[in-house]
Amino acid sequence: MTKIKNKIVFLCSACGDDFPKWNGQCPSCKEWGTLSEFKVSSKKKRRKTEIRESKFLPDVLSGAPVERIPTGLKEADRVLGGGLLSGALVLLGGSPGVGKSTLALHICSGIDRKALYISAEESEEQIALRARRLNVKPDHLHLSGENELDGIITHIERISPELVVIDSIQTVMNSSLDSLPGSPSQIRDCGQRLLEISKQKNVTILIVGHVTKEGTIAGPKMLEHMVDTVLYMDGDDRYDHRILRSAKNRFGATHEVGIFNMDSDGLKEVANPSEMFLAERSVDIPGTSIYPSLEGTRPILVEVQALVSNANFGTPQRNVNGFDYKRLGMLIAVLEKRMELAMGAKDVFVNLVGGLRVDDPAADLSIICSTASSTMDNPIEENIVLLGEVGLAGEVRSISRLEHRLTEAETLGFKKAIVPAASVNDKVKKIKIDLHPVKFVKDAFKILF
To answer: Model confidence at 95, in pLDDT bands (50, 70, 90)?
Structure first.
């Protein structure tokens, strides 16, 4: 009797490529220490695959447009691009305890269609207790604690649901592989099988994934490439709100956000996040300003705080929450070189209140003015908003979607706005807010101080 040989390959958890021998550095993505060994059995099970016929494009376009399935949560629909699509594969990642399973149960309850919730981490009774606490509608929801891939496929074929939740992909295993659940080989194989089922049976599948300590979804990167939508749920233990972000969306805009409040009854939608982030705003205190952020298509007003003090040690500190650390260093250099403010022996602390993270360069003017306000101990007016990208020459550069940002500021009662002169057009001038177009940071300082 001949013994079946197993082929050994090495899989990269960062990019998903496999190689015949181990390397300290992945030859594809150049990441270090990401290759791990797994065995591929030479005895392969041949699955009968249905040959799908090709379709003529005019025939497809002449048919009825595909309808989206509302999730019952407007904030989730905003991030998804209007709702769930039949046959879509959605990946939801987030830190432990942030509310991924809670959001999945809310979606199962809100779509009002037959749904199957696969929880390989909890029993059916544990899910039922959580569903009762969240007031989930039980009429169309089926529960299963199955964690073997073939068993999950059997459940899908038997129940024929329109939505399947896999919670989580790290605990689902394919028994034909010789690796443990959660390994790159298991995640890659299970993800590929679920993709085939989603497209062949036109079933929407929501996959919940764990994240690594770097904040990325655990497993090979190709898991994010094969799905249609990648969602991240962010949250902080200090705050009750949760932020749902879209990092990839084939059927809608990326970088959209949805804001929720987490309490004992589950997730509650926040209709006006600007009021929430400005609820405890500081007034007439040096070092604070208001910046109209733009998350996807949604403007959100955020309070920017800066504190500048004399350094007690040899190397000054540069600490920032919610903004790029290196960009803060650039703005401090502009303050010292172009505005002639001595910052070399100063500790600088910058905080975007509420735990919101911003990577928009339009926040530059607000941050640099808040830092200067704290340095000069001169407060900024409470009814003014600041926005604009700052260049190395001290100029204020144009930004996108200025009209949407100023409309939100006007709605919340702000009277003045310092904006880049290059971004002002006829639509912006129609907004009932006192505009101060500037070309350089020094022009903004003349208005503020």
So the answer is: confident
pLDDT score for 354: 80
CB 103 within 8 A of CB 153: no
Q: Please compute the mean of the pLDDT values over residues 137-161 and round it to a whole number.
A: 90
More confident residue, 16 or 96: 96
10-50 pLDDT, tens digit per residue, is 877 777 677 888 888 988 888 888 887 766 655 555 555 56
Alpha helices in 53-117 (DSSP H): 57-62, 74-80, 100-110
In residues, how long is the chain? 449
Cα(442)–Cα(401) distance, rounded to whole angstroms? 24
CA distance 118 to 156: 10
Mean pLDDT of all residues in 136-157: 90
Q: What is the CA radius of gyration of the chain?
A: 26
Residue matched to tokens 């919340």: 412
Q: Give bridge partners of residue 258 from the DSSP assignment.
A: 244
Structure confidence by residue, pLDDT tens digits, 233-249? 988 766 788 889 888 89
Strands 163-167 and 18-19: unpaired
| Cα–Cα distance for residue pair 8/41, rounded to 1 Å | 9
Average pLDDT over residues 266-275: 85
State the pairing for strand pair 35-41/6-12: antiparallel
Contact 73, 187 (CB under 8 A): no
**pLDDT value of position 294:** 86
206 alpha-carbon distance from chain centroid? 16
SS3 403: helix
Q: Under DSSP, is residue 190 helix (H, G, I), strand (E, B) or coil?
A: helix
**pLDDT tens figures, 345-381:** 899 999 998 878 888 899 999 999 999 999 999 999 9
Calpha distance 324→317 (Å, rounded):
15
* Cα 164 from Cα 120, distance rounded (Å): 13
Q: Name the amino acid, one letter, at 368.
A: I
Measured from the Cβ of residue 290, the count of other Cβ atoms closer than 10 Å reads: 26
**Which DSSP letter does residue 211 get?**
B
> What is the distance between the alpha carbons of residues 107 and 163, in angstroms, rounded to a whole number?
9
DSSP letter string, 259-314: EEEEETTEEEE-S-HHHHHTTT---S-TTEEEEEEEETTEEEEEEEEEEEEE-SSS
Rounded Cα distance, 386 and 354, in Å: 18
Of 135, 137, 146, which is closest to residue 108 (Cα–Cα)?
137
Model pTM?
Answer: 0.77
How far apart CA 386 and CA 325 sit, in angstroms, is 20
Instruction: Give the closest residue to 38 by CA, choosing from 18, 6, 12, 10.
Output: 10
